[in-house]
Amino acid sequence: MNTSRSEPQRAHGETGKRAPKANKSCLPCRVRKVKCDATVIGLPCSSCTSRQCAKDCVLHVRKGRSRQSSTSDHSDCQNPPQTEPDLLYLNILNDAVKETTESSQHHTISNTPYRSRPEESFTPRNCLWTKLPQLDDIDNEYLAKKGVFDLPPPQHLDTLVKTYFDHVCTFAPVINRADFIRGYQSGDCSLFLLHVILTPASLHAPVDVLSACGFASRSAAQESFFSKAKLLHNFAAEDDPLLMLQGSIILCMVILDHPTDRDFSYWFHNAIRLATKLDLRDTCIREDKPRKIIKLYRRIWWTLYVCPFSHIFNVFVNTRRSRLLENTSAIKPRTEDDWEAEDVSGASSGLLSVVTPQQKASPVALCELSRIFGQCLSIVINKPHQDPRQMMHPLDTWRKSLANKMHVGGNIGTDVYYLNIQAMSYRFECILCRLIRRRLQQSQHADWSEWAKERLRSAILELDMISMRVLASGTLQDFPMPFITTITALLALHIESALDPAETDLVRSMARISISQTMLVLTQGKEIPALKRALPVFEEILAKKNLYPVQPSVLGQAPTQSQSQSQDNIMADAYTSPNAQFNIVPSQLEQGESNLPLYGDFLGLDFLDDWRLGSWNSLFDVDMGSQGQAE
C-alpha cells in the first residue's frame, strides 16, 4: 500500500474498531473555511504553505458518534472575523513611495522552540500539566508532540510569570492575580491561560532567562508560547468561557514578527462573543453578583472598552463588532477601587509585587482618555460643520489634572505609566487633527484647518519630547505595546512631513532630524518582535528616499545630553516658527513631487493582521456595515 504523507492519522492501540475517519480538509483550512488540497497533494497543503504555517497543517480526525469529540467542534473559531490590514502604517508608506518592500512580507519562524529536559520539566507540579482530561488520547498525544505540555524549568517559569504580573497585567488587569498564583503554584491553573500570559511576558523577561529556556530570541519565545496557546484554543481545551475571555483579551496585545490570521481582530472578535455569552455588560449594570466578581467583570469590561483605542482603531470601522461596548453611560466609570483586594505577602511567594499607586491609576486614566477621545471623534465625524476648536477643551482640562491623578509628583519625566498615558493622548490628538484637516480640505473654513495644523504640529512635538525621554532613560522595554506602536506612528508622521512639498523647507528639514531621533528610540527595542518586523521596512524607505540626516551607522548610539538638548531646542524653534525658511532642502524632493497620500489613519490602525491594503483608502470612508460581524 502506498503510504503517502497525506495518509490520515490513526489511533494507536485500537483493535477491532472502525478506523477514525479523516476530514478532507486539514485543521487550519477547516477552521478558516477555505478550500484545501491536502488529500490531493498531501501535507502540507497549498493554503498552509502559502500562509507559511505548514507546521500546523494536519488532517483533522473525526471520532465515532458514541464518543464525545473535543476537536470536532471548535466553537470559538468556526466563524473567524474578516481580518484587516496588517501593520497598516508600513503598507501606507510602501504605497506612498511607490516601492515594493519584500522584506516586510517574509519572516523566519524558529523551528527550535523550547524542549525541556525530562528531569527539568516533569517536576511534581508540572506533571499535572502533562495531559488534559477533557481531551481524548489522540488529541493529548498530538498536543504532546507539538510541545504544548513542555514548560520551562520551574525557576524560569516563575520568573516569566512574575514578569507578566509586573509588566503586563497592570496595563490590562483582567485576571485576579492572587487566585491565579494559587492555582499556578498548586499546578491547577489553566494551561491555556498560562501559555497566554507567557506570550507577552517574553517581551519583558530577562534575556538570560529566555536563553536558559532554549530560545534564541524574544521572537522565538513569543512565537513558541503563542503557538501553544493557539493550539489549546483550537482544540477547545479550556471549557470555562471566563478563562477563554481573559486569554482572548490578553492575546489582543500580541504582535508577532510576521503576519498571522490570529490577529487583534480575531481575538477581539472572540472576546466580544465570549463577553456577550457571559452577559458581562448587563452584569456590570445590575451589579447583582458578589463584589469580588463585579470588580473583576468591571475591569474586564473597561479593558474591552479601551482595547480598540489602545491597540488599534477598528471598533469604529465595524460598529457591529462593538455592540457590547454600547451604553457606556449605564456602567459606572472605572475607579481605583475596582482593583482586587489582595494580600500578596502570603501565598504569592514573591511572584506578586504590591500594586503601586501609578499602576492603579493607569487603567482609570486610560478609560477617561478613551471616553474623551470617543466624544471628540463623534463630533468630528457626525458634526462636520461644528467649530472643532471647542471640542479639545475636555482633553486639555484632563491633561492638566493628569499628574495628580497618576500620583507621580515630580517624576513626570520618568514614570512609565504617566509617559504612556501622555503619549496615548497626543497620539489621539494627532488622529483627530489629521482627520479634521482632511475633512476641511474642500471647505471654506481656512482658520479651522490652520488651527488643526498647528495642533497637529504641537502634538507631534510633544511625542518627540516623550520619545527622547525614553531614549535617554533606556526604558523602552518597560512600555506596553500601544506605546511602541505610537512611536512607529510618530516616525511615519515625520516621514510624511519630510516628503511633503507643501511644507516649508524648515519643517521638512526638522522632520529629517526627528526621523533620526525616532529611529534611535526604535533601535533600542530592535529585539521586540513587532519592531523586528517594522524596522527593516522603515530603514529601506529612509534609505531609498535619502532621509537619514546622519549616517545610519550612528543608529543605536544615544546622543549626549548636550546634543539632545540642542536638538530639542531646534525642533521647538521649527515647530513654533512654521513659516520660517531653511536653506537645507532635501535633494530628492523635486518641485513636481506630489504630496504623499498616507491613506487611512495609520495612527490608529497600526498592526492589523492582513497584508492587503484593499479598499482602505480612508479609514472613515469605509462602509461600516460591510465588514465581518461578531457573533
Structure description:
Residues 1-22, 100-121 are annotated as: Disordered. The protein has helices spanning 27-32, 38-41, 46-50, 88-96, 118-121, 137-145, 154-167, 177-186, 191-201, 207-212, 218-234, 241-251, 264-277, 280-286, 291-310, 357-382, 393-400, 402-405, 416-439, 446-473, 481-498, 505-524, 529-544, 561-576; strands at residues 21-26, 59-62. The model is unreliable at 1-22, 62-88, 98-124, 312-321 and 550-631 (pLDDT under 50). Helix content is 49%, strand content 2%. It is mainly α and 631 residues long. A two-stranded antiparallel sheet has the order 1-2. The longest helix is centred in the last third of the chain and has 28 residues, at 446-473. The chain starts with 20 loop residues before the first strand and ends in a 55-residue tail after the last helix.
% residues in beta strands: under 5%
Alpha carbon gyration radius: 25 Å
Helix segment tally: 24
Strand order of the largest sheet: 1-2
Share of residues in helices: 40-55%
Assign an overall shape: globular
Query: What is the H/E order?
Result: EHHHEHHHHHHHHHHHHHHHHHHHHH
Mean pLDDT: 74
Instruction: Count the domains.
Output: 3
Strand count:
2
What's the SSE blueprint?
Layout: E1 21-26, H1 27-32, H2 38-41, H3 46-50, E2 59-62, H4 88-96, H5 118-121, H6 137-145, H7 154-167, H8 177-186, H9 191-201, H10 207-212, H11 218-234, H12 241-251, H13 264-277, H14 280-286, H15 291-310, H16 357-382, H17 393-400, H18 402-405, H19 416-439, H20 446-473, H21 481-498, H22 505-524, H23 529-544, H24 561-576
Antiparallel strand pairs: 1-2
Helix pairs in contact: 7-9, 9-11, 9-12, 12-13, 14-15, 15-16, 16-19, 19-20, 19-21, 20-22, 20-24, 21-22, 21-23, 22-24
GO biological process, one term: DNA-templated transcription
Domain Zn(2)-C6 fungal-type: 25-59
Pfam family, one: Zn_clus
